[in-house]
Amino acid sequence: MVKVWRMIDNVVDPRDQCQRNPPEPLKLEDLSEIGVLYYHVPEKSGLEKIAKERGYDSRDEITINREKMPNYDEKIKNFFEEHLHTDEEIRYIIDGHGYFDVRNKNDKWIRILSEPGDLLILPAGIYHRFTPDHDDYIHVTRLFQGLPKWEAHNRSNTTDSMNERKEYVQKIESN
Fold it and tell me: What is the residue range of the signal peptide feature (predicted)?
């Protein structure tokens, strides 16, 4: 089952668990409240079903580790920069571990431990970031509608005024 918690405010090493003291575990309801969907999908057939239901017809795989990813340190730094996307972000963990961090309604960080079989769907317009854990290894399937694209918009005053961000904020405020 997915592990989710409120993060500390001052992160020294993003690959640490970054738990508060005392820990503040959260539930799936805390994720769904902000539009984040979680599924445990141990079989590839379950992934195919969800992809079909949500209209995902394209995919790629990425292995994030020092040996397989050129410019590893730079890319990890970019992944951990707070950003949003104009499309839903859907990631299925094949192997390894990492952390997806998302902002709650109060603009506080929530950390999601992502492990094999986890499928996360982040809504368009949500601020988030990613880092592998200390093993520096995660193998992920990324799903897309149409051609694969991955364009991050780092958080700024400009991103707050993007239509996708405004729509996202309006949707979660009405929950």
Answer: none
Residue 172 confidence (pLDDT): 93
Radius of gyration of the chain (CA): 15
Q: d(Cα 158, Cα 156) in Å, to the nearest integer?
A: 5
| Closest among 87, 101, 109 to 132, alpha carbons compared | 101
Q: Which residues contact 17 (CB under 8 A, 6 or more apart)?
A: 5, 111, 113
Task: Identify the three-state secondary structure at position 64.
Answer: strand
Supply the DSSP symbol for 88: -
In this model, does residue 150 exceed pLDDT 90? Answer: no
Q: Which residue in the block uniquely carries the two structure tokens 């795989």? A: 61
Euclidean distance between CA atoms 153 and 160, whole angstroms: 10
The pLDDT-based confidence of 45 (bands split at 50, 70, 90) is confident
40 annotated to bind ligand: no
In angstroms, the CA 81 to CA 60 distance is 22
Using DSSP's 3-state secondary structure scheme, residue 147 falls into coil
**CA 151 to CA 9: how far, in whole Å?**
27
